[in-house]
Amino acid sequence: MKFAPGARRYAVPLLVTAVPGILFAPPVGLALIALAAGVLYFYRDPDRSPPPSGVVSPADGKVSVIREEGNRIRVGVFMNVWDVHVNRAPVGGVVEDVEHVSGAHRPAFSKESDRNERVHLRFEDHTVTLIAGAFARRIHPYPDAGAEIQRGDRIGHISFGSRADVLLPPEYGRADLTVERGEKVRAGETVLVRK
């Protein structure tokens, strides 16, 4: 099993601390081992196989946002703590800009999350936005500006609960959507829109 960057940073100290815990306070040691296993589960990074066409989901989770913004459609996916938190490129292209915006840490499924801390990955015709949630305090984008990304490539991860949005290319409208609010999706595999 692959893990997102940062998994060791959280899991190794817990496992190292668990060794003396097992010897001197077995319940504490077992709790630390269970916590380390939970961290590794959270940071899992399974391989994905994008379908041959369509704009794919940037995240595992449930579709929580579908809205029009001018002549564009935004689709947002809420990730709970059980979902894979490695995010993937919904469409290929060259990253034109990576912008970090400071903000609040409201629950990522609420309307107030539109003012949360976020990272925008801007491409020529679409934008992926990684949004921190109430417990997510770190957003880790992988590519820098100028990087060429293929559809389904890993583009970042968010630590501990969050949302990933894609502002779709302008040629897609509501009639092209293949998902609805509340629908469960998988990063890099579930098609959000198709012409």
From TrEMBL:
GO biological process: any one? phospholipid biosynthetic process
Is Cell membrane there in the keyword field? Answer: yes
**InterPro entries hit by this protein:** PS_Dcarbxylase, PSD-A
- The answer to keyword Transferase applying to this record is no
Annotated Gene Ontology MF terms? phosphatidylserine decarboxylase activity
Q: Which domain of life is it from?
A: Archaea
User: What are the TM regions of this chain, as residue ranges?
Assistant: 12-43
Task: Tell me the keywords, alphabetical order.
Answer: Cell membrane, Decarboxylase, Lipid biosynthesis, Lipid metabolism, Lyase, Membrane, Phospholipid biosynthesis, Phospholipid metabolism, Pyruvate, Transmembrane, Transmembrane helix, Zymogen
Q: Write the protein's name.
A: Phosphatidylserine decarboxylase
Q: What is the species listed in this Swiss-Prot or TrEMBL entry?
A: Natranaeroarchaeum sulfidigenes
